[in-house]
Amino acid sequence: MADDLFKALADPTRRIILDELTEKSGQTLFEICSRLSMRHHLGISRQAVSQHLAVLEGAGLVETRREGRYKFHDLNVSPLRQIAERWPASDPDTPEPEESTP
User: Fold this and answer.
1) How high is the pLDDT of residue 83?
2) 62-71 contacts at long range (C-beta below 8 A, 24 or more positions apart)
3) How far apart are CA 93 and CA 56, in angstroms?
4) Residue 31: what pLDDT?
């Protein structure tokens, strides 16, 4: 799963989509496309945005829900938390262990 997550985050367009979902979760494909066009001047097709969303969904970063004929996209940050917990950062107040030299 970590490979899918890193692949999803590697693309700048997907990171912009995540930024937009961070600002307003629960957007439709139309809303996401509009925001990418108006705010970021990205002229990509709905199909391309849909493919990016599929990659993000495959990595677990986006969850979808249907209400009638509408499909809403919500941000899911739990995969990012799992990665952060995998490699805990050291406390800056704790001195690093000294290396011994032979």
Assistant:
1) 83
2) 62/18, 62/21, 70/28, 71/28, 71/29
3) 36
4) 97
pLDDT of residue 94 exceeding 90, the answer is no
Whether this model's pTM surpasses 0.90: no
Token code pair at residue 37: 């066009």
Coil, strand or helix at 20: helix
pLDDT at 77: 94
Place of tokens 């590697």: 10
Query: Which conformational region is residue 60 in: left (phi greater than 0), alpha (psi within -120 to 50 degrees), or beta?
Result: left
Instruction: Return the residue matching tokens 């490979």.
Output: 3
Query: At how many degrees (to 10) do helices 78-86 and 2-10 cross?
Result: 110
